[in-house]
Amino acid sequence: MWAARAAVAERAVLTRHLRRFWGLPGTRLGVAAWPPSARQRLHTHWNYWWQAHLLDCLVDAQQRQPHPGRAATIHRLVRGIRLRNLSWTNAYYDDIAWLGLALLRAHECEQVPVQVPLTAITAQLRDGWTDHAGGGVWWRRGDNFKNVPANGPAAILFARWASLGGERADRQRARSHTEWMEQLLVDPGTGLLWDGLYVEPDGTVRDVVRTVYTYCQGVFLGACVELAAEDTSGVWVGRAERTIRAVATHLVDHDVLRGRGGGDGGLFAGILARYLALAAARLPGLGSDLGPVAARVVIASAQAAWRNRALARGGPLFGPEWTRPADVPHSARHRRVERDLSVQLSAWMVLEAAAMLERLGSPG
């Protein structure tokens, strides 16, 4: 059931959003909105990290049901990202970590060459670590803000890259990033991760931003699950379990993850769903009984997203709040966040997460 629904969502997103980059053969990029404006058709506004999640979703779909056409699309999207960005990196450490993760998965799935981009991305992430506020990488170059959205995906990437071509010390870097988040940005009352903190030039913390975002929980959970695989102390399993409990207590309505509107926020719930599904798949093998709780949230969220879909040209259209019916935008002037690629990717992501759990037979 979930595999079929994920396939329908995939077809709808690709039909409406996937295009050649400036008409160049052998390229693809995701158009930021549908219906698109003229500027969006030309990709003049560059949503770098949305493309990383589009690539991630394509890898999900390829793992669900391999197809040579999709394999070609994966390679074309990677080429389109490289050409549009002119390089593999940019000034935002969170952006490049997301692309690194997607590229690494594309390599494992479809042998996409990644040595050059991953070398560039991880080198920049290593250089981004400073001792200000006790460690961590900045949100972006030249900034005074350090946050979970940068350090979380960096930790996951380093944990995976350590055994697939990176430096021996990369796994320790993953631990350091995750420990830094644990020490400075976990709310002791709820167990949820705060967003980040502002740092003075002398390295002291000026202010902690206690806003709670769903995707901060997702990347911290993902880092803990990666680190738990080679740790016998149970520390990382325990932190993963605490995060799952906190999410299931504070960030759901009837087990359905809450949305965060459109724009970048449109991706937040889908990212958390991805790492909840990963936790549901891996934690039982590490001695945890919280896998079914994580799976339950994923399945309930997927059910709500599917139930509240709207019908549009190309297939189903999803809303930013999965508990509410989606509205179909009728033109580029229609200011509905359903237009945003981020919102559609998030729903596709949760459906793929449910399909993955379905394949594994995980209870939810």
Automatic annotation (TrEMBL):
The keyword Protein transport does not apply. Keywords: Hydrolase. InterPro entries: 6-hairpin_glycosidase_sf (IPR008928), Glyco_hydro_76 (IPR005198), MUG_Protein (IPR053169). GO terms for molecular function: hydrolase activity. This is Glycoside hydrolase. It comes from Actinophytocola gossypii.
